[in-house]
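User: quick one, fold this
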Amino acid sequence: SINSGSRPNSTIRNARTPAMLSHVLELSRGIGREVLGPDRAAVGRLADLSVRLDGHPDADGAPHRVHRLLIHPRRGPDVLVPWEAVAALHAGQVVLDTADLDAFPIGGPVALQPDEILLARDVLDTQVVDVVGHRLARVAEVLLARTRDSGLEVAGVEVGFRGVLRRLGLRRAAVGEDVVAWPDLHLTSERGHRVQ
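Assistant:
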């Protein structure tokens, strides 16, 4: 399984059964959930997660780390909060080390860095090219895994209609029936293609 002692990339590539992917976090299950401040009071809702496609994964091809969280605050405009402000992540619930979201203004439309994409907007429900399987596929789920230092990184994507049905609650199948490792895909969304 994917845990703090294994590389998510290699686990995704070598997984043969859904049980081997039981510790993977699913992006769609986190989007829309309340984000809590240090006093455990809700400060907003998680709208998206960003990663930077800087082209410099580590030597063993590790996936890209989550860089920032796009949050819809209870009041005011959306904010982009750096992952370093996350104090805890328990069962998909994000807890920040600050309740002062005004410290992370965006200043107009979502201001991403040149090599940054949003996972829900630019990957989920878009088509990707599986460069190993030589096919075009639609992303049903973005799969995330914890890192040794309490970070979060993109392990891969689940493709195919079965994943969509499970996400909609119409199927109870576990993740792992058709998964593509993050380094093995090419994004086709407008921003994803431009940045990658």
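User: anything notable?
Assistant: The chain is about 15% helix and 35% strand.
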